[in-house]
Design goal:
The protein is an alpha+beta fold. It has eight helices and 14 strands. A hairpin with a 2-residue loop joins strand 3 and strand 4.
């Protein structure tokens, strides 16, 4: 989770942004959800609102905007799927806060990188009908030592990951490549378990899952219906891997 953060703009660290010299932002040490904050969209700093607030959510009791998005849900929930495919952005920050319950009190902790003022977290954005843009910070399970304070943390991107995150790469590319060689269909409805069961029922021999990590390692998870085995496979080896099971020539060799 990331419910508060600090941002000081570093023109040096953001020299790659087209409008960095013309964008002004007053340093803030306590940015909270629904604050006006900059995000990098189409390589420009754009003023946005932190927290996605869809209309269906506003109708619920005690609604709060979706200021965080779990990366595990990006391809499972309709709320995030379209934005993940089409509206990825960078959200700059200089550090963030988490709270840990210690006895009867909650102790705040501040996370930052010692020798780097500007950090970039993976984000999603939504264009609203009134012209506003709302954003959400993507989080993942925290790793040691962060997990001793909180079980979630924002996804901080390296330079290579930034380029991949902002690239035109999308889940449809892998799907389109497979269609050239095999009878394939694209499915993003419901949870991953329901998708597996749905495909098992119609006899689909392989299910390929594309997740956030696919953007980092260019790999996917392939599940064999008959053995239930799941493997992590490089995208470039995917066609050959499947072909090894379904190719007529390879089947004849096994006779």
């Amino acid at each position: 989770m990331c419910g508060r953060y600090y941002l000081e703009i570093s023109k040096k660290d953001m020299s790659f942004v087209d409008n960095i010299n013309n964008y002004n932002f007053d340093t803030s040490y306590n940015i909270s959800p629904q604050s006006s904050v900059p995000a990098i969209i189409d390589n420009k700093l754009i003023t946005t609102t932190w927290g996605y607030f869809p209309s269906w959510l506003k109708n619920q009791d005690n609604p709060r905007p979706l200021f965080n998005s779990r990366y595990e849900s990006l391809l499972e929930k309709r709320t995030f799927t379209s934005a993940f495919k089409n509206n990825r952005c960078l959200i700059p920050l200089s550090g963030w806060y988490e709270w840990k319950t210690e006895g009867e009190s909650r102790q705040p902790y501040f996370f930052y990188e010692k020798n780097k003022l500007q950090l970039f977290t993976a984000g999603l954005y939504w264009n609203r009908s009134n012209g506003d843009i709302e954003i959400s910070i993507i989080t993942k399970e925290a790793v040691s030592p962060l997990d001793s304070i909180h079980n979630r943390s924002p996804i901080i991107l390296t330079q290579t990951q930034i380029e991949e995150w902002l690239s035109d790469k999308n889940v449809n590319q892998i799907y389109d490549d497979l269609k050239v060689h095999f009878n394939a269909q694209f499915d993003y409805k419901d949870s991953i378990g329901k998708r597996y069961r749905r495909q098992d029922a119609i006899g689909t021999p392989f299910c390929i899952t594309i997740d956030y990590e696919s953007l980092e390692d260019d790999s996917v998870t392939i599940r064999n219906r008959d053995t239930m085995k799941q493997e992590r496979i490089s995208v470039k080896n995917l066609v050959n891997h499947i072909d090894g099971f379904v190719s007529i020539n390879n089947l004849l060799k096994k006779l």
